[in-house]
Amino acid sequence: MPDSNRIVRRFPAIVVNAGRVYDMRSSASVHTVSPEAIRDLPVSSLAQVLALQPGVVAVGEDIHVRGGRAGETQWTLNGLTLNEPLRDRAPDVPLMAVQSADLLAGGLDAEYTGSLAGVITLRTWDPGARPSGALRWMSTGRLGNAYDWLGARGTTPLGLGGLGVVGAVEARLDDQELPGRPSRGRDELFGGRFGWRNDNHLSAWAKLAPVANPQALSFELLGSRTVEQPYDPMYAWNDSLLLYAMFSPCEGCPTFLDSFTVFYRAADHQLMTETRRLIATLQTSRLGQRMQWHVAASWQHGSELTSPGLLDDPRELNRYGKVVFGGDVNPERSPFLAVLGEVPYFRRAHSDRVQGGLSAAWQQSNKSRFEAGAGMLYDRADSHELDSALPTIRFVDTLRTYRTRAPGAWGYVQHRGEREGLVWNTGVRVQMFSAGDARARAGNSPTTGQPLPDARGSGAIWTLSPRVGLAMPLSVRDAFSASYARIHQSPARDYLADDRLLIYSRRPLGTPALAPSELVTWQMGLKHLFNARWALQMSLFQRDLFGQLGVANDPYFSGTYRPRYANSEYGHATGFEVALLAGARAGATPPRTAQSLLRRFMAGEFSLRYTQTTADGTISGTDGWYYGAPTGFRPVAIGEHPLDWDRGPVFEFDAVWREPHVFTLAVVTQASGGPRWTPTNDTLTASGGPPGTAPNLKSVNSLQLPGLLRTDLSLRLEPPALHGVRVLLDVHNLFGYYAEMAASVPGYPNPEINSTRDDYGGYRTMTGRSGGAYWDPRANSGRGAWIPVNDPRLRSQGRSVRLGFEVGL
User: Fold this and answer.
1) Which of 94, 174, 487, 799 lies at 20 to 30 Å from 166 by C-alpha?
2) Given a cut of 60, is residue 393 above it in pLDDT?
3) For residue 766, what is the enclosing H or E element?
4) DSSP string spanning 492-552?
5) How many angstroms separate the CA atoms of 486 and 733, rounded?
6) d(CA 331, CA 406)
7) If pLDDT is split at 50, 70 and 90, which confidence band does 14 have?
8) What percent of the chain has pLDDT over 90?
9) Cα distance between residue 417 and residue 355, in whole Å
10) What are phi and psi of 676, to 5 degrees?
11) How are beta strands 80-81 and 73-77 bridged, if at all?
12) CA dist 265 to 182, 183, 794, Å?
């Protein structure tokens, strides 16, 4: 006989506006980006929207989730990963193609791919039943800086088989408030002059699906092209150059000193990068009451080109054709400026990935659900890289080429159950990684001198990833959750193969012996619903990383070392997140009276987030330390230090007020600790070189730049006279707060300044000044002095006012 006194607690059917709180019975830490946020916040890319979420630090277009590296966050669509296989970089998706997105930062179920930082799931727009479109354009009008953003989305039914199509395009051209190239090509079009900026993004997307049931079957295409023409003050020379050289009129004749003049525009010879991506995805689903299944397949192709002026063919330059800096010409000029020659670097790479997955779910009852899935992928990658760095050294391999092919696979099972209010999500994920046919030349034995066989991978490596989550109600408005997971992420293909032996240390040797990196993570969370609008989310997390990709000094001959990629690094991230969220007030708009001003203010949509994270590790990037000798032993970090993107406390506030068909006002404020930087030794180097330019590897990232503060505002007006056209105003960095974003930058291909030594870091360490400088031993009557550079790349952008319009949104 059932116990009539037993009480089963269930959550009430509380509707939280704007999707501000994720499933109360989930143990995952999920931050949702809504369509309203994408439309109304002062952002121009999905990465900027995600940067507003708790635990996320943005560095340019890269996002770091809970202390993880940029490539450790996986982007997915229809259950398949979108990151390219070369270095796990994220895709470039049109903002107007994304309906919503979820950032899963912790407590991942077994269905989600191996990712050391987090997973971003995208949901794109579906075709509409009637033709419609939207257009948005914003520009600074070249007042202060040159910025233009154009986006459009359109949909129409095809009248064939109930199908419809929807598509979006986007163009974002930005000079990043940096000086432009004097040689940048510009074209005449419709009476105006157009051309590339420092940072350029073009992307397009389309989806074909049944209008009535787009989940049943859909086909999507995503393409993008990115052109980077980065500013570098080392390439500021744009003038004639008087040179002296010794000439001889004939063989055996005496030489004499003569002069000649050449014109050199350094920006024509600077490195540029073009990246192209194409992704095609096909999926079909059946969503029954008891059984659901989903099948998806995708193909993605990528290409990259990096060369001076985006030349298509490599140039094998001799020592006299390489770039020359002012200190090496006669008469001598600034050793900081490039005055002759080409940058001796070229890289062309291609990648392809074909993958497919099948998943199924069985809803046994309203308290029990089983899921299982499996999939396979096949990667192909090739690269041709010429890196003939300065100084020119004989017997150093300057050409790196490889062509690899490799399979991969995964499978998972998981179960979600509930008993007396306690909800569990348990599962296990199996992944297979293989280096495929990647190999690395071993050269000769350092002891016998005999040739050694090429290094190859160990075949299939299987990893097991258990994931456990629990959620329980504490009251009808409170829920507590806890989760544990062991996650593995496979290394990207660019780190696995190599055909060089003796190398310049700038690019370490690939090794096919790499294994997947490992993350052990747990978190506890608390969710509280104040009412239908207001909610509170809190989470405490700990992340331990093992076998991360790094650089080890590989002994070759006696006393000779080569940097090589290895599973040599580890890291930790500990922190907590607090988010107070409020959806927009539902119901009628309050009356427009002075007495209702506060009420109208509180009727908006609010987010107040605070994150405290401590992210430590042995090293932050995969390529090791930027500075050091061009060949031989490469300095590595000593001990455990804060990671580059560790900011400490981060505070974020955003609010949106909407008056339908009148205006929308949004404000976003972010405050955090400043970027980390490494001081240098404040004594002369052992070779008697410039003071304070040898990095202090005992104090990596031990100092922090001043804190960051930024407020952005957006205003959308809809005057009745414009009949639905909205006028847009965005003000970025409203209060014009300039912040220091870095203390130093790599100086390649300069053989010394910011390459062998860290001049910028030494200048800040020795003088306390910002802006960067280099040490010139000829200055100050031969006693040497710092020559300030005032490099604008080291600071944030100032206030930027953008105007535009939109139709149909």
Assistant:
1) 174
2) yes
3) helix 759-767
4) PGGGT-B--SS--TTSPBP-TT---EEEEEEEEEEEEE-SSSEEEEEEEEEEEEEEEEEEE
5) 40
6) 54
7) very low
8) 63
9) 31
10) -80, 155
11) antiparallel
12) 8, 8, 24
CA dist 600 → 194, 587, 590 (Å): 44, 12, 6
Which one, of 105, 114, 118, 79, lies nearest residue 26 by Cα? 105
- What's 656-707 look like in SS3? EEEECCCEEEEEEEEEECCCEECCECCCCCCCCCCCCCCECHHHCCCEECCC
CB 512 within 8 A of CB 499: no
Q: Both tokens of residue 662?
A: 């009148």
Cis preceding linkage at 391, omega within 30: yes
Cα dihedral 347→298→280→88 (10° resolution): -30
Chain centroid to CA 682: how far? 34
Residue for token pair 């055996």: 252
Quick check: 23 and 98 in contact, CB under 8 A?
no
pLDDT level of residue 99 (50, 70, 90 thresholds): very high
Measuring CA to CA, how many Å separate 768 from each of 286, 673, 712, 763? Answer: 63, 18, 30, 7
Count of CA atoms in the C-beta half-sphere (13 A) of 35: 10
What φ, ψ does residue 108 adopt, rounded to 5°?
A: -70, 135
Element (H, E) at 765: helix 759-767
Q: How does pLDDT run across 230-239, given as a tens digit for each residue? A: 899 999 999 9
Tens-digit pLDDT profile for residues 525-565: 999 999 888 999 999 999 999 999 999 988 877 777 889 99
Predicted TM-score (pTM) of this structure: 0.91
- The pLDDT value recorded for residue 623 is 84
Rounded Cα gap, residues 655 and 715, in angstroms: 12
Asked whether residue 17 carries a pLDDT value surpassing 70, the answer given is no
Give SS3 for 139.
Answer: strand
CB distance 427 to 465 below 8 Å:
no
Single-letter residue type at 37? A
- Across the range 589-614, mean pLDDT stands at 74
pLDDT, residue 634, reads 80
Helices first, then strands: H and E counts in the chain: 4, 42
Identify the bridge partners of residue 607 per DSSP, sorted by sequence position: 581, 654
**Both structure tokens of 780:** 């100050």
pLDDT tens digits, one per residue of 730-765: 999 999 998 999 999 999 999 999 999 999 999 999
What is the three-state SS of 582-633? Answer: ECCCCCCCCCCCHHHHHHHHHCCEEEEEEEEEEEEECCCCCCCCCCCCCCCC
The C-alpha R_g of the chain, in whole angstroms, comes to 29
Q: Which amino acid is at 490?
A: S
At which residue do the structure tokens 């308290």 appear?
367
Q: How many whole angstroms separate alpha carbon 605 and alpha carbon 525? A: 23
Helix or strand holding residue 35 (H, E):
helix 35-40
Segment 601-611 shows an average pLDDT of 87
Asked whether the predicted pLDDT for residue 202 surpasses 70, the reply is yes
Q: Which of 10-19, 676-685, 724-733, 775-784 has the lowest mean pLDDT?
A: 10-19
What is the C-alpha to C-alpha distance for residues 505 and 635, in angstroms, rounded to an integer? 10
- Residue 110 near residue 427, CB atoms below 8 Å: yes
For residue 321, what pLDDT is reported? 84
Q: What is the mean pLDDT of the chain?
A: 88
Instruction: Please tell me the distance from the alpha carbon of residue 368 to that of residue 424, in angstroms, as a whole number.
Output: 10
Tell me: the pLDDT tens digits for 396-424? 899 999 999 999 999 999 999 998 889 99
- Residue 455: in which H helix or E strand, if any? strand 455-456
Q: Are 500 and 520 in contact (CB under 8 A)?
A: no
Q: Which amino acid is at 514?
A: L
Residue identified by tokens 């959620």 is: 471
Are 77 and 281 within 8 A, CB to CB? yes
